[in-house]
């Protein structure tokens, strides 16, 4: 494509490399920033003052990510530990999508609007994803199965516990009285 525009292949390779590196750097920055916010929020929620500080929360986020990537030696040697966690990526993304739909449903309900267009796909998405994840965690990765994988079992079980906790909290919010309605501005 670049040759058709008159750009030499070596220059095009450099441009593509810069784009890829920029995308990776932006993604890493965003993920570390979100992890920092979550860690600081947990510190606030559970009154753990040290982790509410920006530098401490950032250090925890970076250190835990580095440990997950570097400590378990992956299939391509040291530093490829992310490949070991790859089977959790798809279900984690689907659970995040389902939780997002659930939050939109709560917001719509509190606005007094119809929330069925978001809650129906959320129920389907969460049911199918949780079914798949429970099957993987307890029939493929569990210590009592052949070919068990402690790393995937541990992180999968943690993700499942947090997912059910979020679901219970969210459904309790949906079931609340109409007193919690958000007033629409005129």
Structure notes:
There is one protein chain. With 186 residues, the protein is an all-alpha fold. Helices cover 72% and strands 0% of the residues. It has helices spanning 9-45, 54-70, 82-111, 116-139, 150-175. Helix 1 (9-45) packs across helix 2, helix 3 runs parallel beside helix 5 and helix 4 runs antiparallel to helix 5 (150-175). The longest helix has 37 residues, at 9-45. The N and C termini lie far apart (51 Å). 12% of the residues are buried.
Mean pLDDT: 87
Structural class determined from secondary elements? mainly alpha
Helix % is over 70%
| C-alpha end-to-end distance | 51 Å
What's the short version?
The chain is mainly α. The chain has helices at 9-45, 54-70, 82-111, 116-139, 150-175.
Secondary structure layout plus pairing:
Elements: H1 9-45, H2 54-70, H3 82-111, H4 116-139, H5 150-175
Helix pairs in contact: 1-2, 3-4, 3-5, 4-5
